[in-house]
């Protein structure tokens, strides 16, 4: 699916700033860094339009021989993290061009994609917000149990998608409709109103909406 242009960054955490009227605004601080274009894909050559951008420089001994050749074509140096962004039209950027936080401005609406914090194996009450059984007489040691999940003789199995206990978190999440409060180009920092998925120092992709 085609997306608008974006940039990679690291979620540093949350803080608050004060608006002109004195109101406190909760913001997430995203350090975007400088993201070079390491590959350009076009409809004629690859069947779709896309840009591959990079973040976090890497040591040569940490990069395989094939990837060293890949980075050498772009002349950008070696990097640890890559991300491909599909575009609706032909890319305007050039190979090796650096993308910076200056592509955004205060007042822009963006969406941020990251990997949510993993919570491990959780029961159905915490994972799905189930109410549980009544905590009174006649209900012994089943207050947080899953309850009946099967069905009658036919078809005789538990349907896929049943809300049960299991692994929670550690999945790709996109938060949309976030407002850019401030762009600090000198520090390569973006201040976004609202929450951003992932832990501190987690990798995120910020795109225009």
UniProtKB/TrEMBL annotation:
One of its GO terms (biological process) is translation. Belongs to the universal ribosomal protein uL3 family. GO terms for molecular function: rRNA binding; structural constituent of ribosome. Part of the 50S ribosomal subunit. Forms a cluster with proteins L14 and L19. It comes from Candidatus Desulfovibrio trichonymphae. NCBIfam families: L3_bact. PANTHER family: 50S RIBOSOMAL PROTEIN L3, LARGE RIBOSOMAL SUBUNIT PROTEIN UL3C. HAMAP family: Ribosomal_uL3_B (MF_01325_B). Signal peptide: none annotated. InterPro entries: Ribosomal_uL3, Ribosomal_uL3_bac/org-type, Transl_B-barrel_sf. It comes from the Bacteria. Keywords: Ribonucleoprotein, Ribosomal protein, RNA-binding, rRNA-binding. One of the primary rRNA binding proteins, it binds directly near the 3'-end of the 23S rRNA, where it nucleates assembly of the 50S subunit. It holds the Pfam family Ribosomal_L3. GO terms for cellular component: cytosolic large ribosomal subunit. This is Large ribosomal subunit protein uL3. SUPFAM superfamilies: Translation proteins.
